[in-house]
Amino acid sequence: MSPTKKPLLCFNDRGIFCEVANVYLDPWRPVENAIITHGHSDHSRWGHKNYITHRQNVPIIKHRLGNINVAGVEWGETFSVNGVTFSLFPAGHIVGSSQVKVEYKGEVWVFTGDYKTQDDGISTPYEVVKCHTFITECTFGLPAFNWLPQDEVFEDVNNWWAENRAEKKTSVIFGYTLGKAQNIIRHLDTSIGKIYTHGAVENMTQVVRQLVDLPPTELITRDTRKEDLLGNVVVAPPSAHGSVWLRKMAPFVTATASGWMAFRGARARRAIDKGFVLSDHCDWYGLLDSIKATGCEKVIATHGYSDIFSRYLREELGYDARTAKTQYEGESAEMGTSHEGDEASEKELENANEISVDDNVKLEKSIRTLLT
Amino acid sequence: MKNFANLIKALDSSNKTSVKVDALTEYFRHASDEDKVWTIAILSHRRPPRPVNTTLLRLWANELANIPLWLFEESYHIVGDLAETIALVIPVTREHSDKPLTEYMREMISLKKKSDEEKRAYLHENWLALNFYERLVFTKLITGSFRIGVSQKLMTRALSKAVEVDEDLIAHKLMGEWNPDTVSFQELILEEKSSDFLSKPYPFYLAYAIEGNVSDLGNAQDWSIEHKWDGIRSQSIIRDGHLFIWSRGEELVTDKYPEFHSFAGIIPDGTVIDGEILPFIDGQIGTFNDLQTRIGRKTVSASILKSNPCIIKAYDLLEWQGEDIRTKPYQERRKLLEDLFSDIPHGAIPLHLSERITLNSWEEVSSERDRARELHSEGLMIKRNDSPYQVGRKKGDWWKWKIEPLVIDAVLTYAMRGHGRRSNLFTDYTFALWQDKPDGERELVTFAKAYSGLTDAEFRKVDNWIQKNTLERFGPVRSVTPELVFEIGFEGISLSKRHKSGVATRFPRILRWRHDKKIGEANSIDDLKALIC
After folding, report:
1. Which of A34, B396, B464, B503 has the highest Cβ tally under 10 A?
2. For residue range B105-149, what is the model confidence (pLDDT) as tens digits?
3. Do the two domains A3-145+280-371 and A150-276 of this chain adopt the same fold?
4. Are B225 and B376 in contact (CB under 8 A)?
5. Contact yes or no for A268/B12 (Cβ under 8 A)
6. From residue B344, how far is each of A314, B3, B356, B498 by CA, in Å?
């Protein structure tokens, strides 16, 4: 059983596994050592013994998972286990999101986690990492997904807000709690009005504020009056749509910011007034361009329209491409709409945990000792 | 095109009726007369013939998208709408076009006669010069399928608000055949000209299903009962020696039913009859399945006419001696209709009277309803004796009281993605029942497809399950592990050679998801056949 004959990374029932180092990448079942790409719940799960992630992601996953044993590393910083060298590079998906580079005896693999190539002005922009094998998500891996530049989308968002304000209505915009919500908050034009937040969004935004500059937000509480909200904008998780909490805000109009809004049916089905096509994932050309830029020969497509996407890579572009089953959201061959990417993470975010910075530093040290 | 595309975007952006009507009204207030006519035509499904077939459309769109055809097809299955797929896969622009809708429509009409090369150049040029919504609308106009969740009723209401003409009058003016390329807005909506009305049908009065208890309608003696016949609702118009037969879908079907051509000459001019086209075989009303052989057949052979003859069951009289009598009470109109029948020699024409039944109590009405299945009717119509003939679907005076559906428990075996608001979601299902094989084993045999009956939340759950339990893919269709059992309801049932199961069901739909049942407990084809009466 020589490890050199086996692939450097394999997919088993717990996650993406590097056997030589006994390290998992974004495992979905409890393991000993887990490298975590980012804070969404399908990638950072509860119950691992040791977590390693980017420094920026540490407060985020601690907020989500409580007092876990986590070490933070910098972009490009290497750490080796049993001859395998690991390092993290920005993935541009959300704040603190990384790709994982795995090197062993001259062979390089990269696992993207979730990523986007467009600079959203809040996450550290995606960086191309040269590799031999590229494990890529393809949530929006269909030619039907072509994003407009983010600036143009936010121009539309702010115009929509201003129009609603003119009609004396409250604008309610849904975006998942970690990432999309802060991206929206960051790009809302506060000369139009005030930004109010749902509790789940506010909690996470407080955590992200430690990492990036965000305009002021105000949590909606029992004491918030309807009149205070009129003409202003409310940022809420998608799960708030149709809730009693929302009904108290009438008159209001709703919008969702998601890549799925590219499909007219997706918006109509949710009975949302307005859909903004804004995603934290790559569009079709984003995926193709980044694959090309890595110079890889092999591609493994994970969650998303992976079967269709890998067939295209194989037949049209000549890659050695295949699909791997994972349990990341929308894991089934073609991502349906039931999963909505990262929406699932909302539910787990409700119970906030306090974090202590001292704790954090202490643990980081211990993990690094353990791994090097 | 910009304004029309913005209208479609606005209509698309809301599920609220009031918002849609407001958007349409606003549009009609500002659009040019020509654009108004075309908009009315498009929203009432009167489009010029398709200038390019969808095979070429796909091919040429692919050239711009630079993707292989199979990938386009996969994308189409997921997006669920051809024009939308095309609009999405062609590289995005934020360009827009100020060219009026009418001009586009004229170009599309003249495009039909042009060479493929000219068609291709025209499409490429326009696709690249239009933003997403304009491109979507442009392509939908080319493909000719324009379902955007706006009924003709909503459009009529908005138009009525914008031009301040009575809604029912507009509905009447828009009936029948008119050509948006030649008619002016003035002629179509504003002018009163009787010559235009020669072939024009009246808008059909449609009933809602009864809510709550039938006895809540008050005194049974104030109401008349008719059977709700299961065929094609129609209007027979006899004016100036001509006969026009319209289906409820506003399709002129006169040529499809030669047996009715004898009406003209026997029924006096200036008569309009509301009735149901029904199959009538060996002196008996057949099932809807018997009518299937006639629907869609443009020319009818003598042998089909002999084996599948039709009649019209007359419900109501809308015009008599050239006078619109829709505002007269139902019982007066019926009296005139019955008088008309007494003047026609018995059996001279295939026009029957739908019996009007007056009963003294709701118990008697209920027992009449129990006879429906044996009479091949769908249930009862309950009409207030003094009701006028209204326009469109209205509550209060006419109610339908259908019989309870037949039910059977079936196994989900295949699934397909839906369209429109259900695109990208597996919502179109095929169901199977057990059948004994010669070797004594049992197999599942497909018997019906159903698309409706689950809540959105249930559809999402089933969709999720299908993605995890797919066995095989056949283009857009997937076979799934036989595991889920559903209660299927349907209106009628008859033997059929065209169906694998040997049985055709009428209007099958999902009644509920039987979480409590395993597939072994689902029904068999024999159980289904036992329901045939």
Report:
1. A34
2. 999 999 999 999 999 999 999 999 999 999 999 999 998 777 777
3. no
4. no
5. yes
6. 75, 55, 18, 39
How far does Cα B411 stand from its chain's mean position?
Answer: 28
Contact A331, A303 (CB under 8 A): yes
Q: Which two tokens stand for residue B300?
A: 């009818």
Do the Cβ atoms of B84 and A148 come within 8 Å?
no
Instruction: Summarize pLDDT for B361-387 with one digit per residue, the tens.
Output: 999 999 999 999 888 899 999 999 999
From chain B, the residues in CB contact with A332 under 8 A are: 464, 467-468
**Cα B532–chain centre separation:** 26
pLDDT category at B421 given cuts 50, 70, 90 is low
Task: Give the pLDDT confidence score for residue B173 in this predicted structure.
Answer: 84
Q: Which residues of B touch A (CB under 8 A)?
A: 12-15, 65, 67-68, 71-72, 74-75, 78-81, 84-85, 88-89, 91-92, 94, 149, 419-426, 456, 460-461, 463-464, 467-468, 470
Query: How much of chain A, in percent, has pLDDT values that exceed 70?
Result: 87
pLDDT tens digit string along A184-231?
Answer: 999 999 999 999 999 999 999 999 999 999 999 999 998 898 889 999
Which of B13, B426, B464 shows the shortest C-beta gap to A274? B13
Indicate the range of A285-299, B411-425, B444-458 predicted with least confidence: B411-425
Tell me the CATH number for domain B205-402. Answer: 3.30.470.30
Contact assignment for B464 to A338 by CB distance below 8 Å: yes
Q: Which two tokens stand for residue B471?
A: 């066995």
Distance CA B274, CA B260 (A): 14
What are the extents of the domains in chain B?
205-402, 406-529
Q: DSSP per residue over A156-225, as a string?
A: HHHHHHHHHHHTT-EEEEE--TTTHHHHHHHHS-TTT--EEE-HHHHHHHHHHHTTS-----EE--TT--
pLDDT in tens, A252-298: 999 999 998 998 877 777 778 889 999 999 999 999 999 999 999 99
Query: B-chain residues within 8 Å CB-CB of A145?
Result: 88
Q: What pLDDT sits at residue A354?
A: 30
Strand pairing of B310-320 and B271-281?
A: antiparallel
Per-residue pLDDT at A110: 98
**Averaged pLDDT of chain B:** 90
Contact list in B for residue A256 (CB cut-off 8 A) is none
Encode pLDDT of B62-71 as tens digits: 999 999 999 9
A265: nearest CB among B94, B423, B426: B423
Strand partners of residue B506: B492
Tell me which CATH code domain A3-145+280-371 carries.
3.60.15.10
Domain extents for chain A? 3-145+280-371, 150-276
Q: Cβ separation of B460 and A338 shorter than 8 Å?
A: yes
Of B72, B79, B463, the CB nearest to A338: B463
Tokens of B109: 């009409």
- How many Å from the N-terminal Cα to the C-terminal Cα in chain B? 56
Tell me the two tokens of residue B366.
Answer: 């209920």
| Chain B contact set for A264 (CB, 8 A) | 12, 81, 84, 423
User: What is the sign, positive or negative, of the torsion defined by CA atoms of A105, A109, A113, A115?
Assistant: positive
ipTM for the assembly: 0.84
User: Number of Cβ pairs closer than 8 Å across A and B?
Assistant: 93
Cβ within 8 Å, pair B423-A263: yes
Distance CA A173, CA A254 (A): 6
Backbone angles phi, psi at B153, to 5 degrees: -65, -45
Q: What residues of B are in contact with residue A318 (Cβ under 8 Å)?
A: none
- Per DSSP, A22 falls in state T
CATH architecture, range A150-276? 3-Layer(aba) Sandwich (3.40)
For B406-529, CATH gives 2.40.50.140
